[in-house]
């Protein structure tokens, strides 16, 4: 919770306050946790690394497609392996 609060403080300094502020970051965090497997800290770390790597590659070609790439990966993962990479 401390790290989440600190991240919120850092983000609020860069962007103006809005009701939907942080929604994109929250969705990405949920995708990372599901990608790694619910209840697996190691899986979440690896899922975050994988998602960050894919996001960087997609952003190199077109920055607007990164969130779409996250959703596509999320849907494909739920279809292929619903418990995540390290899920039981």
Write the layout of secondary structure elements.
Blueprint: H1 2-14, H2 23-36, H3 41-61, H4 66-80
Helix pairs in contact: 2-3, 2-4, 3-4
Which range does the strand content fall in? under 5%
Q: Termini, distance in Å?
A: 26 Å
Shape: globular
Biggest sheet details = none
Low-confidence stretches: none
Total helical elements: 4
Structural class by SSE content? mainly alpha
Helix content: over 70%
Describe the structure in your own words:
- This protein starts with a helix and ends in an 8-residue tail after the last helix.
- It has about 90 residues and is mainly α.
- The protein has a domain at about 35-85.
- The model has no long low-confidence stretch (mean pLDDT about 85).
- It is built from four helices and no strands.
- The chain has helices spanning about 1-15, 25-35, 40-60, 65-80.
């Amino acid at each position: 919770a401390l790290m989440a609060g600190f991240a919120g403080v850092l983000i609020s300094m860069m962007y103006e306050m809005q009701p939907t502020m942080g929604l994109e970051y929250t969705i990405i965090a949920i995708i990372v946790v599901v990608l790694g497997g619910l209840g697996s800290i190691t899986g979440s770390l690896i899922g975050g690394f994988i998602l960050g790597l894919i996001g960087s590659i997609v952003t190199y070609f077109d920055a607007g497609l990164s969130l779409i790439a996250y959703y596509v990966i999320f849907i494909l993962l739920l279809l292929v392996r619903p418990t995540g990479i390290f899920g039981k």
